[in-house]
Please model this.
Amino acid sequence: NTTSWLNATVDHTAVSGTCFSCHNGTTATGKSATHIASTNTCDDCHTTTSWLNATVDHSTLTATCYSCHNGTSATGKSATHIASTNTCDDCHNTTNWLNATVDHTAVTGTCYSCHNGTTATGKSATHISSSNTCDDCHTTTSWLGARVDHSTITATCYSCHNGNKATGKSATHIASTNTCDDCHTTTSWLNATVDHTAVSGTCFSCHNGTTATGKSATHIASTNTCDDCHTTTSWLNATVDHSTLTATCYSCHNGTSAAGKSATHIASTNTCDDCHNTTNWLNATVDHTAVSGTCFSCHNGTTATGKSASHISSSNICDDCHTTTSWLNATVDHSTLTATCYSCHNGTTATGKTVTHIASTNTCDDCHTTTNWLNATVDHTAVSGTCYSCHNGTTATGKSATHISSSNTCDDCHTTTSWLNATVDHSTLTATCSSCHNGTTATGKTVTHIASTNTCDDCHTTTSWLNATVDHTAVTGTCSSCHNGTTAIGKNSTHISSLNTCDDCHTTTSWLNATVDHTAVTGTCSSCHNGTTAIGKNATHISSLNTCDDCHTTMSWLNATVDHTAVTGTCYSCHNGTTATGKSATHMASTSICDDCHTTTSWLNAAVDHTAVTGTCYSCHNGITATGKSATHISSGNVCDDCHVTTSWTQVNVDHGTLTGSCSSCHDGTRATGKPSGHFQTTVQCNECHSTLSWLPVLSYRHSSPDYPGNHNSSVTCIFCHTSNSQTATWTSAAYKPDCAGCHANDFRSSDHRKVVNGAYYTASELRDCTGACHTYTDSTLRTIYRSRSGEHRVSSGSW
Model:
């Protein structure tokens, strides 16, 4: 427009040339200072219709990947990326991005966070079977030298210690077919329990007194090895070759070295050899004078002859009734007799029934016992008279005082074959049931009857005994003593599954308001707490797909272990510092909530939203909370915020006054701009000529070389001497260096430097130090000075 001609608004849709034909940094602005470093022109990546959605040609980029992919300029590491301090270029390259070479030394997470069989390969098929993760046994600096935690290994020892994967049995190990686990345990390796059945060598190959214990000090003296007498299947039952023994029997068979007298041996003070001999052991000649036991200890029918076939049958031994001095006049101990009384007391061998005895077909033993003879138990089935002929109150007891009042005699109701099962004619009784059925006169309540204070008539009727109406107020037992599903109905099919009985939760006064004993419930919480049977999750409960049992236990309800994978709400809906713990005191200061940076599947690998961080960069990036300066960072006393801003991290405003390293440690042409292409070529540090406070103009450089001939007072520039733009000077007459003639030999005029009056002139070689003294001599002998010159030429003089 006419008011502002130069500030034109370009209609780019009508431009027919390329973007770069204008935006080349001259006609119009080119790439900005923060643009990706590349050799592309605008049109290679951008289009006029969608400028911001550029398609980057990565093959032409000259900067590092991280200069863009730092999470600010472009997307950085993803939330699931390996946790490490590396930048992209440390592991990836643009030609084959996916086949990254991981720099494990920079990885900050555990090995298992990647090598879990999903993100990266985990344990191989041949790995030791255990519950360990990589880091429990391996280190990144010495992977193969793993220290195995044997307590977590679930496979057998031999699955590794088979001589292939790991060392097996040593050369000195017992020869056997066993594997390690048959004898050893990991908790007590040396105290092995040897499975002798699998040993393939001889006993003596171990039990030789060196490898394992040999013969004990009390062993039979012999040159035999173990295997001559013993077998592994029956070690104690050794077969001894007695023909080789020269000692007495008792020297071994003394109850210590070998078995002595058996428990059934005649008790005596004899040793074996007193009665036995080795040629006829069983036919011993007994020396009765040394016998210290009873007769029966031998004469028991086994060791020696016992009672004869006609002897009274009893459990007595000889000494109970007989004496050695009067054997036949025995005193009988009836309490030990096992035969019937009648076998003796039959009126022939001994006296039988008296004349006043009850007439019956019984023998003594049918009614009497030897321990209580008078209190006989009568076998009424053998009595031939009526009950009342005895039970008349005189000969024997009649009706008791508590008998049902009746004029009947015994035989009217009772039978001898079933006395207690009397047939009572209840229609003639006028008393209440309980007057008889009180547990004394007649059977009362059975042991399985409901425990109560009622009498029969309170609940039962004689016309319908079983259909009793229970008066629960008088019941003294527990509900479950009846309501057990057998005596009376128990829990119904919809009852809570538990080990409780009725009384654990209910009361008879308020049955429905049960107090549940949750410790005895055998079903899941949600089988009741489903919002129908019982209350479910309340309105403020964490929003999730879990049932109660997934997170809670009845023993510790409040200390729930939350299954975060099933939670459907945001993290912050709980972790807000009220419902559950929020950010910790050491958390990064920010306005973000959990979900802005973290994910439940990879909590630690948070993608930080730096725009919401309210603290300084250094409050995190201090090398402890988060990575600080890298090893290649500029050496300085600054913290991040002194030079960087979060909105444009790579646009650093460096405070050079705090830097502690040399200029070239950064300005090397890679990390920061170095010397321009036309800069003087030198290894001298920047600050030898420049100042960080005032870079231009360049300070005068003070030469340190001993060849430098002082400070010239004329306008001599560096390239006067350093003609090749190098810190090594080029001498035009190198033969004369380091004197003045080294540069000025071609300027020397001999005609101005007479050596002899009216005679010879000096050469450049003779006057190579222009600043020295010069003499003119009277003649060629050079003995007499005609004229002296000194200080004619000075480098500090503006006029030569």
